Amino acid sequence: MSGNDAFNRSSRTPRSPPPEGRPAMETTPGTPVAAARAEAPDVVSTTEIQKWISEIEKRLSEICTIANDGKLNSDQKLRINTLSKSVLGGISQLAVQYQAVKQNLLLSQAKVNTLSMQTNISTQLYELKQCIQEKATTEEKQSFADMVRTGKSSTVVPTKSSSSIAIYPADKEKSSEDTKNLIQNLIKPETLKLHVRGMRKTKNGGVIISTERKDDLEKLKASQQLQQSGLKVEDTTKRRPKIIILGVPTNMSEGEVFDCIFKQNIADLQPNLRDTFMCSVKLSHKSGKKDLSTCNYILECTAEVRRMLIQQQRVFINWTSCPVRDFTLLTRCYLCHLYGHSAKYCKDTEPTCGHCGSSGHGFKECPKQAEPAKCATCLRFKKPANHKTGDDQCPAKKNAQLRYINSIDYEGA
Predict the structure, then answer these.
(1) Which residues pair with 10 in a beta bridge?
(2) Does this model's pTM top 0.70?
(3) DSSP one-letter string for 48-99
(4) How are beta strands 196-201 and 207-211 bridged, if at all?
(5) How far is CA 22 from CA 75, 286, 362, 365, in A?
(6) Residue 315 — pLDDT band, cuts 50, 70, 90?
(7) How many Å apart are CA 39 and CA 109, to the nearest integer?
(8) pLDDT over 70 at 202, yes or no
(9) Which CATH number covers residue 187?
């Protein structure tokens, strides 16, 4: 038999084309079509498709009736030919309708998937935004001491500066507590309208009073009660800033390092300040592990030199680029666990345990090591102590850091 069948049609029936104006599988970029195709059903039943199936059944039934009548004449053959063409046309239309419906379903499912993905992305972006905002709020609430401690900032920005004076007793046998009680009995802040920020004890039996305004200090100095009490009032002097230069080559002498710091970092800005620079910079100490090719220089300097070097963020020394930052490391005594002095200068005769906070034994001899740790520093001041001694979030440590940094003369830096 030739390539044509009895009804003059090719044995290979071409696939029905998609409806005009409707691309076969056109989707938007990024649309998950493959996933949509896998979920699409094999048969789509619609009213239109059911109508064409019914028509096909009628035509085939009529063909069967004619065939059963007996011998076929020319008219019958023509009729069969016409009816068969009608059936084939109906099947073609059915295929077109089926394809159109299925493609619509695929496109709809792809759009649903895309919208779902976009919704998920939108939700994730919103959660990320909330997280960033919360983190930004937390960082804004952090003190500058915390930022220096965690290394997030190499520059210290002191809090609102306060003014302070030191008051010492005439009798050197008096304690700081005696001086504090005497001042509180003599001076009534509400009468002088003082804005006192704090009062802390110092050595030699004295106390330091910090106020919001310099006018408050003048009121204290002019107080007749203080003048007649025999107490000595002095202006406090602030410490010079300290900076740390990281990674300084150990094969260079101190003089060579200072010479490179000036020539490579300051000479272009202040060429006439060499002598002033050499006089204003002092090596406090070095830090770092032994037997390494580099170490850290901790320098004590003037506020002007500190500002110039800190603004550069790096100091160039010979062939080395060294990070530079403010040095605000706080000393803690491992005998009494108070801040501001070392065990060498501690007045306590018995150790205080850094684990349980009790006096009379050290950490290694503590009988309560199985119990939760308590902060020895906060216990001494009768404050909540449900944290480890020296913890970064310890209120006593934060206050000590704040006092230390505010005691340094940054000259408005």
Answers:
(1) 4
(2) no
(3) HHHHHHHHHHHHHHHHHHHHTTSS--HHHHHHHHHHHHHHHHHHHHHHHHHH
(4) antiparallel
(5) 41, 79, 85, 86
(6) very high
(7) 9
(8) yes
(9) 3.30.70.330
Helix (H) or strand (E) holding 376: helix 376-380
Buried b (16+ CB within 10 A) or exposed e, 16-52: eeeeeeeeeeebeeebbbeebeeeeeeeeeeeebeeb
- The SS3 call for residue 351 is coil
Q: How many domains does the chain have?
A: 3
Neighbours of 232 (CB within 10 A): 13
Give the Cα separation of 175 and 183 in Å (integer): 13
* 223/202 same-domain check: yes
- List the one residue out of 325, 355, 305 whose CA is nearest residue 150: 325
Split at pLDDT 50, 70, 90, the class of 412 is low
- Do 315 and 226 belong to one domain? no
Check residue 411 and give left, alpha or beta (phi > 0: left; psi -120 to 50: alpha).
left
> 149: which 2 tokens?
């401690």
- Residue pointed to by tokens 């910079």: 281
pLDDT for 39 equals 46
> 3-state DSSP call for residue 411?
coil
CA dihedral in degrees (337, 342, 347, 353; nearest 10)?
30
Residue-range definition of the domain harbouring residue 44? 33-138
Q: Which token pair is 407?
A: 């005691």
pLDDT at 14 over 50: no
Model confidence at 204: pLDDT above 50 = yes
